[in-house]
Amino acid sequence: MRDPQDPPDTGLDTRLGARLAALRTQHGWSLGELAERSGVSRSTLSRAERAEISPTAAVLNRLCHVYGRTMSQLLSEVEAGPEPLVRAADQQIWQDPGSGFVRRAVSPPHTGLRGELVEGRLAPGADVAYDRPPVTGLEQHLWVLDGALEVTVGEQAHHLGTGDCLRMRVFGPTRFRCGGAVGARYVLAVVRP
Q1: Neighbours of 80 (CB within 10 A)
Q2: Cα(79)–Cα(114) distance, integer angstroms
Q3: pTM of the model
Q4: 135 and 191 Cβ atoms separated by less than 8 Å
């Protein structure tokens, strides 16, 4: 059952849960097998599949890694059919209330495309860590529109201010941290290998 303090489910969590259950079934995995492969607890997986919780960015990232998809690909699979144009008001917004991360899928969703644009917003003090990329070798270009970010790729930390752009290929852990007193807003261009 969803927490009454959570924002109402717009249907995205329900469709996402159903898609996650379908992917697990397609692979022939039990919840226990998926838990072992992803490092996500069985109870979290079960609750996410039943849309009792909205999975965090870190959980979705682990699942995307196991299924070989980017987060945008996974989220586009639960949206209506692909359109060449998506109006700003219709762009899918997802938030991780635990970390202060808000993600807007700017590009029209289409699973067959290699590139996508994402707008990210981090609240002051937000810290989002991924222990692995959703797709190994993923190319990302991060352009800071407002505020400042510390982005760590592997062991290398990069301090980015407004207007700075970081290009990275992701093979291991990454971390996005907004340590300032104001939030940060950025565009992330993602290109699958």
Answers
A1: 9
A2: 18
A3: 0.68
A4: no
